[in-house]
Amino acid sequence: MDTGTRKILAVGAHPDDVEFMCSGTLFLLRRLGYEVHVATLGNGDCGTAEHSREEISRIRRREAVSACQVLGAVHNCADLSDLTIFNDDATNRRTTALLRGIDPWMVLTHPPADYLADHETTSLLVRNACFYGPVRNYDTSSFGPAPATSRIPYLFYAQPLGGADMFGRRVIPEFYVDISDCLEQKEMMLASHESQRAWLRAHHGVDEYLDSMRRWSQELGREASRAAGRPMACAEAFRQHRGHAYPEDNILAHLLPDRVILEPRYQ
Q: Which of 3, 129, 201, 258 could cross-link to 99 by cystine, CB 3.0-4.6 Å?
C-alpha cells in the first residue's frame, strides 16, 4: 500500500478537539508511514478569560502547531471564529476548499450528535465536504485554488466526549482502537495547548485538562476490554459513515488488525 499518496485528515471544531477525539489513532497511523494532517475550523478566539480575540487566536494557533509537531502532522485552520461555525453556503465552500487542499484518503471528525453545536456542525460540514470535494463544478475558488479531490474519502466519527448524545443517551460505537501504548504521546500533544491547561488549573485547582482526557481514554479502554474479553488500558472509539458513495469497508480494521475491537453487536 502506497502510504505516501494516502493522506489522513482529522478535523476538529477547535484547537485541542482532535487530541481528545482521536490523536492516539493518528499516532498509530503515523507509525505506519501515513502523512497526517490536523485541521480546525475554529481559531479558538473565545477560549480565554483574559486575552483579546486576536491575542488568544494567535496563542492557540501556536499551540496547535506545537501539538502537531509532537505527532509529526501538518496543521491547518479554516480561521472561523468560535461559536460561529454554521452550516451555510460560504462555510461549506470554505470547508470543502480546506479538504481539497489536502485531498485525504481518510477523514476523522466529530460525531453528528455531541454536547456542543460547533462540534455537530463541524461534523456535518466535514461530511458535506467529503461528498462535495470531487464535484468539479462546485466552486471553492474564493477560498483557494485547490482542484477537486480525487475521491470521496473514508469517513469516521469519533465518540462524543462522555459517550452520550445531547439527551444523555449512550452512543454505542462500532469499534474501538487500542491506544494503550500511545497515551504518553496523546498527553504530550494535549499538553501543548498550555493556554487551556493553565486556565483549567487556575479554575479547578487540579490539572483537569489532562486528567479528563486520561479518564475518558481509560473508560473507553474498559469498554473495549469488555468487547475484546481481554484487559486494555486505553482506547478510542469510532463509527463509520457508510452512506451512498462513501467507502464501506472498515479500513482502520484492515490497517490496525491487532488494535481494532468490534462492539459485539457489529461482529
A: 129
Any idea where the domains of the chain sit in the sequence?
3-266
Give the whole-angstrom CA distance, residue 143 versus residue 86.
17
Give the pLDDT band of residue 95 (cuts 50, 70, 90).
very high
What does pTM read for this prediction?
Answer: 0.95
- Cα separation of the two ends of the chain: 26
Q: What is the pLDDT of residue 157?
A: 98
CA–CA distances in Å: residue 136 to residues 22, 95, 146, 208: 30, 15, 11, 46
CATH class of 3-266: alpha beta
